[in-house]
Please model this.
Amino acid sequence: KFATSVSGAVEIDPEAKTIRFFNQDNGRVFVHPGSTLFDAQSFAGNAVYMSYFTKMATSKVFIRELTPFNAYALLLFGGPIVLDTMGRGLVVDGWLRLRGWARIGVLVGRLRGMLDAVLAQKIEDPGMDITKSEVVGVVRKLVELDGMDR
Model:
C-alpha cells in the first residue's frame, strides 16, 4: 500500500516494527507490543520525537509509556542547547542534532530562561496563576503549533 505525500508516493507498512526509534544508550529500540502507540504510523502536531518512561530488554530493547513530541517541545524542555560551531544547527543535550538557524537556538534559550523564572515564581507562590503569563502563552503556542504562526 502507498500513500501520497509532498515528495511522492510513500509506502505504508502497517507493522509498527518497521518504525525506527533510536536512543543514545542502545541505538535502535522498539515500541513494546502492549503500548497504545504500537500500531501508530504518525503522531499529531508534527511529533517526530518520543519520550519513554520504561525501557526493558528481552529479545530486543523495548520502550513503553510513550509520549510523542515535536522539535519545539524538545528545544524548550530538553537538555542544554549548544550552537554547532560548524554552522550545522543546534545540539540538544550534548547528542541530538537539529538543523536550523543558530538564532532559533539563541531565542529559544532566552525563552527557556524566561519560562524558568515564571516557574520559579510559581514554586515560591503555589497560588500564583501562571495561565495568564505571556511567557507561558508563547511557549504553549510554539509547542502546539510547532513554531508556525496560524
Summary: The chain has three helices and nine strands.
